[in-house]
Structure of Lipid A deacylase:
Amino acid sequence: MQKKHTGLKLLAAAGLLAGVHSTSFAVDSASFELGTGNKSQLARVAAQWNWNTALWQGSSTQLGGYWDLSLAEFRQNQYQNIPGQKKNLTDIGFTPVFRFQANDKKGLYGEAGIGVHLMSHLYDNNSRRFSTAFEFGDHIGTGYVFSNGLDIGLKLQHFSNGGIKKPNSGANFAVLRVAYPF
C-alpha cells in the first residue's frame, strides 16, 4: 500500500512542477494513441501543455517540449502466460517530452521522454511480469506536424520499474499517435 501512495505523491509532485513551468494551465493539445506489443494492446488519451520557452534555439530548429498527462487502457491477451486469457488494466502517466523541431513547430520532428506511470494492477502477460504498479515509461519517436496543426507520430515505448523491485522484465510497445492543438 505504501508504494501506491509513493507513486501518487510522485505524480502529484510532477503535476505541480508542470504548473510551475507553464504560464497557463489551459491545455494546448490533446492526443489519442493506439499501441501494440508483447501480445497486448493499449489505447491512450492524453492532454499536453507546451513548454513556452525553447531549451535551445538555432536559426531554423529548436529543442523544446511539452508535458503529457495520459490515461490508458491495456488489454493483456496472454494474461499470466496463458494463451487466450485476457485481463485489462488502467494506467495514468505523466511525462516531460523533449522535442527537436523546426522553430515554427511544423514539419518533421523527433522526440524522447521519460515519465512516471501508475497502473491499476500488476502487468503480467506473455512471460513479462511487473513487480510494481509504479512504472517508468520512456519513449523515442518521430512524426510530422501539418500546417493545420495536426500531429501524426510513431513512437517506441518501454515500461519498466527501473530496478525498484524484481522481477523487472519490462515491456515494449509500438504506438501510433494523433494529436490536435486547441
User: Anything to note?
Assistant: Helices lie at 2-20. The two ends are 38 Å apart (CA to CA). The chain has one domain: 2-181.
